Amino acid sequence: MARWVHVDDCAGGDGHESGCHRDRGSVTAEFAAVVPAVMIVLALCLGSVQIVGQQVRLVDTAADAARALARGDGPGRVAALVLRAVPGAMLDQVRDGEFVCARLSAPVAFAPLAAAGLTVSGSSCALAGGL
């Protein structure tokens, strides 16, 4: 009857280990190096979603502001409407023929890019007279 004998693949012919355990812990080191990179990419992705949301709010608020200006609401009331919807936004109003346009800009809400001074803007126009 044959008898199975377990042979350690790492043992050399002289009974010393041949180096199989040299790589022990390398996966942990590689994982530790990759985790910060993955976290940075994830943070940038979440920040870009935040910036897109802010830009959508600016365009929507610019449309509301343009309609309010076209109806004849005062600049103070429209500025209050803008600041209530998007704190820190700047309103620029322009009359172009029979159109009233509102352009809003605000510092980026994502802190790393806000520190660089980047801004997000949105604009919209409405027919004067409030139609």
TrEMBL record:
Keywords: Membrane, Transmembrane, Transmembrane helix. InterPro entries: Rv3655c/TadE. The chain crosses the membrane at residues 31-52. This is TadE family type IV pilus minor pilin. It comes from Luethyella okanaganae.
